[in-house]
Write a structure and sequence with these properties.
This protein is an alpha/beta fold. The chain is built from 13 helices and 12 strands. Helix 1 crosses helix 3 and helix 10 packs across helix 11.
Length: 340
């Protein structure tokens, strides 16, 4: 026979407080003394108390669900789930800390009724908040759809800081500049760049970082060469073939994300070009694949998990309304000195 489930009355008795105080602590409401909050949280843990989710939903008219909304990766022929997994991990950490649950929803931007679908998901699930991932975070039609539900939301990587709006960013432009400078420091003069989806404002900032570094290097490097990708592995393949068949091909290729960089490594292998002896390759994001490739990929670790964790914390009132989480260079096997 299973033991009786602990109730809010049991928690209140154990902590020596009123039922109302327990409710305020469980719902992360403000104006509760730290000592009282700690006492209640200890009682919740000791009694393994689980609030009745349906009752909480009815009382607040919203569920205790946070929605993570992102672009459906199946839109690409060879989809990557690496960045989604990183975001989920960070969002889940913050949800658990705030006693919330996470609902994930991929948006297929090819559908004409995508905004209607998004509004329905938010309203039907009565979400208490939404984390809007890039590139959706800088698409006005998507943002307007979320706003129309009157649900609090946070934009992840909107490409720029937004006044009076919750957002979490990273230093895309500065990090891309640092990577380009690193490649130049290895002696590379012909450094090419593969850009990403033009709808993704944060990825577009990476192009600017590459151009900043190339301009600052002046005569030490050749003129910037940019091939247009779309964030997919296949576009990395196509752009690499285009760049490596030039009369004077680059000795280093920096791609705006790891999926395209993986495509460059594959094309280099097909063409019999050794990496990094003849060609250095760098990416951006540091998805799991970057550490599994051969050679392992030099890249920029975008702190997606930390960014998503910050975003959820904003929605639950446990963080500021703006956060900038810095990216960092990860030097691995795919880059080396320029060939003589």
């Amino acid at each position: 026979m299973q033991p009786a489930k602990s109730t809010i009355f049991d928690v209140a008795k154990r902590a020596g407080v009123s039922i109302k105080t327990v409710s305020r602590v469980v719902n992360r409401e403000p104006n509760v003394r730290d000592a009282t909050r700690q006492r209640v949280e200890l009682a919740v843990t000791e009694l393994d108390y689980r609030p009745d989710q349906s009752a909480r939903n009815l009382a607040s008219h919203r569920s205790h669900l946070i929605g993570l909304v992102y672009e459906d990766p199946s839109a690409y022929e060879l989809p990557s789930s690496g960045y989604i997994i990183n975001m989920q991990q960070g969002a889940l950490r913050a949800c658990r800390a705030a006693m919330r649950e996470l609902l994930i929803h991929p948006c297929d931007l090819r559908r004409k009724d995508v905004t209607t679908e998004l509004r329905s998901v938010i309203n039907d699930a009565r979400l208490s908040g939404v984390v809007l991932a890039a590139p959706l975070s800088n698409m006005e039609r998507i943002v307007r759809a979320v706003k129309s539900t009157n649900t609090p939301f946070v934009r992840l990587s909107p490409g720029r800081r937004l006044r009076n709006q919750l957002c979490v960013v990273t230093n895309d432009r500065d990090a891309a500049r640092q990577m380009t400078e690193y490649l130049a420091s290895l002696g590379h003069r012909r450094i090419a760049f593969i850009s990403g989806n033009a709808d993704h404002a944060a990825v577009s900032n990476r192009v600017l970082g590459y151009e900043d570094a190339m301009q600052a290097a002046g005569r030490r490097v050749a003129k910037p060469v940019i091939a247009a990708g779309d964030n997919s592995f296949d576009s990395g393949l196509a752009c690499a073939e285009q760049l490596l068949n030039r009369k004077r091909p680059p000795t280093a290729i920096f791609a705006a994300n790891d999926d395209m960089a993986a495509g460059v490594i594959r094309m280099a292998s097909r063409m019999g070009i050794s990496v990094p002896q003849e060609l250095s390759i760098a990416g951006f994001d540091d998805i799991t694949l970057a550490r599994q490739m051969d050679p392992t990929l030099t890249t920029i670790r975008q702190p997606l998990a930390s960014m998503a964790e910050h975003a959820v914390s904003m929605l639950t009132g446990n963080a500021d309304t703006y956060a900038s989480v810095p990216a960092s260079l990860k030097i691995r096997e795919s880059t080396g000195p320029a060939p003589k």
